[in-house]
């Protein structure tokens, strides 16, 4: 899973897809995940880093992570 090269991201979490003209606003956790994607982290690495950073249980986060991933795929933001 990798963020598409043409997708622009601001430091504040504003995500822009120039292919579609759509823009999105990420919360702090979404921004953290996108930064992990930009650094070529695997899904397992992302889950591990987020659960550590935000001190949440793996089981609690995994469903949200996979839902977020599906949204990113449906908006053509990741490969």
Walkthrough of the structure:
- This protein has 79 residues and is an alpha+beta fold.
- It has one domain.
- Helices cover 49% and strands 13% of the residues.
- The chain contains three helices and three strands.
- It has helices at residues 28-38, 43-53, 58-74, and strands spanning 8-9, 14-17, 22-25.
- It has a three-stranded antiparallel sheet with strand order 1-2-3, with no helix packed on it.
- α2 (43-53) packs across α3 (58-74).
- The protein starts with 7 loop residues before the first strand and ends in a 5-residue tail after the last helix.
- The model has no long low-confidence stretch (mean pLDDT 95).
Distance between the termini: 6 Å
Mean pLDDT: 95
What's the number of domains? Answer: 1
Helical percent range?
40-55%
What is the general shape?
A: globular
Helix count?
3
Please give the largest β-sheet. Answer: 3 strands, antiparallel
Strands side by side in the biggest sheet: 1-2-3
Content of β-strand: 5-15%
Note the run of SSEs as H and E. EEEHHH
- The low-confidence parts are none
The total count of strands amounts to 3
In angstroms, what is the radius of gyration?
Answer: 12 Å
Query: Structural class from helices and strands?
Result: alpha+beta
């Amino acid at each position: 899973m990798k963020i598409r090269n043409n997708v622009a991201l601001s430091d504040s979490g504003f995500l822009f897809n120039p292919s579609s003209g759509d823009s999105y606003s990420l919360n702090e956790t979404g921004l953290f995940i996108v930064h992990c994607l930009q650094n070529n982290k695997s899904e397992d690495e992302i889950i591990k880093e987020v659960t550590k950073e935000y001190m949440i249980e793996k089981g609690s986060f995994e469903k949200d992570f996979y839902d977020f991933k599906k949204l990113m795929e449906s908006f053509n933001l990741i490969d």
